[in-house]
Amino acid sequence: RSGSGLVGVAPGCPLMPIVVGLSDSSIAAAIGWARTRGARVVNLSITSATAHHSITAAIDAALGQRIVV
User: Of the candidates 54, 51, 33, 43, which has an alpha carbon nearest to the alpha carbon of residue 13?
Assistant: First the structure.
């Protein structure tokens, strides 16, 4: 969007910034939100010492729709 203060390295490529809380459920919900709204790439910078089923399931659903995660 023009004037939104967002810049990407691919001109004409829309960005979908999503503010996410720190809980696994909010991260999973954000991935699902992006997936259902047409995201083609989901970029995450998160780390955890334990696996979180809800996040794994959300990532698997995105991968199942050929979304790059």
Answer: 43
Whole-structure pTM over 0.85, yes or no?
Answer: no
Instruction: Round to whole Å and give the CA distance between 30 and 38.
Output: 13
- Which residue in 9, 36, 10 sits closest to 18, CA to CA? 36
Say what the pLDDT of residue 8 is. 61
pLDDT at 36: 96
38 within 8 A of 68, measured Cβ to Cβ: no
**Which stretches of the chain score pLDDT less than 70?**
1-8
Q: Residue 21 has which token pair?
A: 């809380």
Q: How far apart are alpha carbons 38 and 32 in whole angstroms?
A: 10
- Per the structure block, which two tokens stand in for 58? 């959300």
d(CA 47, CA 66): 23
